[in-house]
Amino acid sequence: MTKSQTLVHLSTCLLAYFILGVIYSLATPVLEASDEFKHYPYTQYIQTHHDLPVLDPETCLASPDDCPWLQDGGQPPAYYTLMAMLTSWIDTSDLREVRWMNWHAFIGNPAQVCNKNLVIHLPERERFPWRGSVLAIHLIRFLTLGLGVGTIILTYLLARDLFPDRSSTKGAKWLALGAAALTAFNPMFIFV
Q1: Separation between Cα atoms, residue 142 and residue 19, nearest integer Å
Q2: Integer angstrom CA distances of residue 117 from 30, 35, 191
């Protein structure tokens, strides 16, 4: 396979990943993606306080609204700091209203026919053009898609370096493309 053919295949894989990611992002209601309900408040805390949240069990147990990130507030802060910088210009003071908990939800029970959403969604708050926390969450999702593109490229490059193209391994480029495609089309990788 020539370099230009490899580039076409890799670019097609990246484009398909990006399109699927945008579809997932737009189809998934705000705060319903994997742990977004806890991850976004962590980002918002960094954005508004310019500091990391303090994980104090007594405060969290006494007033869960004061630590909505729960245990996720202890995760490494680089990603969250990047997201906070991206959304620093957005007024996200409406997060408590957007994060309106659905106490009747049956999360993780596929047999349940109703109340599958963690959050109560108001269409007028979440429809385009986005504002406030909804805008910030969508921007973060799109930046995360961009980071996903970078991950796929790095996966391809790593596989190519681990299995260099030699006469005895003519399929090395296919192996690298396969690794990139396996990463790109993993449903949880697209969804996150």
Answers
A1: 11
A2: 10, 13, 16
Q: Provide CB contacts within 8 A for 179, sequence distance 6+.
A: 155, 156, 158, 159
pLDDT in tens, 145-172: 999 999 999 999 999 888 876 655 567 7
The domain ranges of the chain are 3-41+87-191
Cα distance between residue 174 and residue 152, in whole Å: 14
What is the C-alpha to C-alpha distance for residues 13 and 153, in angstroms, rounded to an integer? 10
Closest-CA residue to 44 (of 3, 12, 10, 83): 83
Question: Which residues, other chains included, contact 146 with Cβ-Cβ below 8 Å and sequence gap of 6+?
Answer: none
Residue/partner pairs of 11-19 with CB below 8 Å, 24 or more apart: 13/152, 13/177, 13/180, 13/181, 13/184, 14/149, 14/152, 14/153, 14/184, 16/184, 16/185, 17/148, 17/149, 17/152, 17/184, 17/185, 17/190, 18/145, 18/149
Number of H helices, E strands in the chain: 9, 0
pLDDT in tens, 46-75: 999 899 888 878 777 777 677 787 777 788
Q: pTM for the complete prediction?
A: 0.84
